[in-house]
Amino acid sequence: RTVYVNGEYLPEDQATVSVFDRGFLMADAVYEVVSVLDGKLLDFAGHMTRLARSLDALAMTNPMSADEYLDAHRQLIERNGITDGLIYLQVTRGNPGDRDFAYPPEGTAPTVVMFTQSKPGLADSPVAQTGLKIVSVEDLRWGRRDIKTVQLLYPSMAKMEAKARGVDDAWLTEDGTVTEGTSNNAYIVKGGKIITRELSHDILHGITRAAVLRFAREAQMQVEERSFTIAEAQEADEAFITSASSFVMPVVEIDGKQVGKGDVGPVATRLREIYLEESR
Ligand code: PDD
Question: What residue range is the signal peptide (predicted)?
Fold first, then answer.
């Protein structure tokens, strides 16, 4: 692969970042993942807006303009011959030259890294026909999940717990309600109504979430933004997740109990179709 590091396009084995980089030592970094279908970027502007918001929340100056990021994304697609896949972008607070809890002095250059992940047939995943099985795991992440930082150890642990329990993924719960998935937003459908947690510091403000809710409202579907419990999800007609990498993906089992009839439901199927049609 050709990857991007601080303005340069390099073979991946020649791309380097300092051992003192705060992204490495402190997880002092934010990221975005944008999907590519047929060579086209999905929801690019939304991801750039959220990147700016994440950086702002951490008092980091955005080192590049949206147009510069767009050019780099397009170059990486081109140089790596990506048809379907993902582009990962990470901005760290840079390399202060030593380890220190205090932020480095102003003017320390941020580190910008981007790379591609080729995923042929990304939109045709067979899982969309069968659905995901998930378990609930307590949400032990920090209190600013709306900032898309690279502190992904706890979501990784939750994912591994799900795998150890023989299922695909986990939904995280706090004070009895579902916050979100390990790397996606969570939804249930009851009586035709789409229910998903309201935006706050408790969850990532998903770019796919925003698009899917907009399309749902445009299609006259009812949407309610509120928290829900695992018990309510198990009694729902349908459940699903959204993210840039999975688009809309049905959930058919929660903590060993099937959701609805235990198969992929019409609302998740329709939303997936609408999202893929409208976004590409
Ligand atoms: N994850 N919630 C969390 C905790 C996430 O990590 C993500 C995205 C989402 C969905 O956001 P969006 O629709 O903007 O992708 C929700 C990305 C895909 C990842 O970490 O790979």
Answer: none
* 196 Cβ inside 6 Å of ligand 1: no
Q: Is the pTM of this model over 0.90?
A: yes
The atom of ligand 1 lying closest to the CA of 244 is 15
Regarding the beta carbon of 33 and ligand 1, being less than 6 Å apart is answered: yes
- Interval 204-235: pLDDT, tens: 999 999 999 999 999 999 999 999 999 999 99
Give the CATH fold of the 127-279 domain: D-amino Acid Aminotransferase; Chain A, domain 2 (3.20.10)
The one catalytic residue in 148, 163, 190, 261 is 148
Is domain 2-120 classified as CATH 3.10.350.10?
Answer: no
ipTM for this prediction:
0.99
211 CA → ligand 1 middle, Å: 13
